[in-house]
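Handout, section 3.2

Students often ask what a structure token actually looks like in practice. Rather than define it abstractly, here is a full record for DUF669 domain-containing protein. The first block is the sequence as you would receive it.
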Amino acid sequence: MSNQQERELGWDDTIQKDGGGDFVVLPSGEYNFTVKKFERGRFAGSEKMPACNQAKLELAVHSPEHGDVTISHTLLLHTKTEGFLSNFFAGIGQKRKGEPLRMNWNAVTGARGRLKLGIRTYKDKEGQERQGNEVKTFIAAEEVHPGAQQQPPFPPAQQGGNWNVGQQGGNWNAGQQNGNWNAGQQGGGWNAGQF
């Protein structure tokens, strides 16, 4: 157990705890994704979680059969959820396991990675049972591309070029089976349905 007290995290705080191993992953599948939108917000608090900052993410999940599907995902900035934050930043290539990271939210929009997507069942306002997608975990870039270099938490502006996990801009070859990326391609890019 840690002697540190739980607390709210600031936007530029450093995080270290690794995440992703504590929860069950539904067998819905792995997908490539791009962060389309990031919005800063405030979580009002609940019985289990005090009020804290929250990051509202809009993810474009790239499906071979259905094209891009938009999924909303929220991250709470609190020590209780530090593992989830680490999992996300590892998924976009900014954080390595066991290493601290100063969260760089300015580099989140446009970042790419891989995630495990599940299906959840819930009741809507009228009491009808519905299903929706949810992110089960983000897959660390170092697991997707072993030996690939970590993206710096504060990368220089990049124009074009080939795409690596966590990099903004550039090209992405998603035309290969099983979601393998070809970081060595020249030109091109990716198109929905090209998987």
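Discussion prompt for tutorial groups: The helical segments are 82-91, 141-144. How would you have guessed this from the sequence alone?
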